[in-house]
Design brief:
The protein is α/β, with parallel strands linked by helices. The chain has one domain: UDP-N-acetylmuramoyl-L-alanine:D-glutamate ligase, CATH 3.40.1190.20.
Length: 258
């Protein structure tokens, strides 16, 4: 069994963040561990409050895991300030972490800003160069490149983000109309992934789940293209079997095949 570490924020209603990551790891047959960067008070209607964890505690959590357990892959999610980002990067370099997937979480589905504006450059400078793949959705890609990105400009945006230093970039096209189209750039070639759009109302945690699934498949030894393809297939099933919970946007079903 492979051991996966998620470094992200906690979602009190369990649909996204640390909770979604751990569910994904388990559903795909891996053992999940966590480093919590922030605690959010949220439900299916949105985020009510956020408390960030100190960089010292983030470091202590990372050290505790790596000093005792082999870590086969790492996924980072909500890392809300530059101080925490720099600490995570320093710790991952110190422990020679591998198979790092960086999901640049910036804004929640309800519109709550999870990444401070002054932390964006730190994210690009500190974490992106450590990543096997960075997985922004279209709105996040627009923030990273500093302009609106049309569907025809996804390749250009991917190349721009690639210049920040990751081994590859996956731009997720979930916000597009029509078929769900994602574009992977590895510095040499582009690979397009398409899937039928599933018109489901309950999609809380889709981005967290996809990046965690990719990390899990990389840990299993899949090459990146296959890791993305298998992860998208898993995510489609989880969305197809999503269910209502609460009064807002409910979660996807991580254990639909169990």
């Amino acid at each position: 069994m492979k051991n996966l570490l998620t470094i992200a924020g906690s979602d009190s209603c369990g649909g996204a963040g640390i909770q979604a990551d751990l569910k994904t790891f388990a559903a795909l047959g891996a053992y999940g561990m966590s480093v919590i960067t922030a605690v959010t008070a949220q439900n299916t209607l949105g985020i009510c409050q956020v408390t960030e964890i100190s960089k010292e505690m983030v470091k202590a959590q990372i050290d505790a895991v790596f000093s005792d357990i082999q870590v086969d892959a790492v996924k980072t999610g909500m890392v809300s300030n530059a101080e925490i980002i720099r600490q995570i990067a320093a710790s991952l370099k110190e422990w020679k972490a591998r198979n790092i997937v960086v999901d640049p979480v910036m804004v929640s589905k309800s519109g709550y800003h999870l990444l401070r504006p002054d932390a964006i450059e730190a994210l690009k400078k500190e974490l992106f160069p450590l990543a096997a793949v960075v997985t922004p959705n279209l709105p996040e890609a627009e923030v990273l490149v500093g302009k609106k990105v049309k569907e025809t400009e996804m390749a250009e945006a991917a190349m721009s983000i690639f210049r920040s230093g990751p081994e590859s970039v996956l731009i997720k096209g979930g916000h597009l109309q029509g078929a769900a189209r994602d574009l992977l750039f590895d510095g040499i070639k582009f690979t397009e992934f398409t899937a039928p759009r599933l018109n489901k109302a309950n999609t809380h945690g889709t981005g967290c789940t996809l990046s965690s699934a990719i990390a899990t498949h990389l840990a299993k030894g899949y090459d990146l293209t296959r890791a993305v393809a298998e992860s998208k297939k898993y995510l489609s099933g989880a969305i197809e079997h999503s269910f209502p919970l609460g009064k807002g946007v409910g979660p996807i079903n991580h254990f639909y095949s169990a």
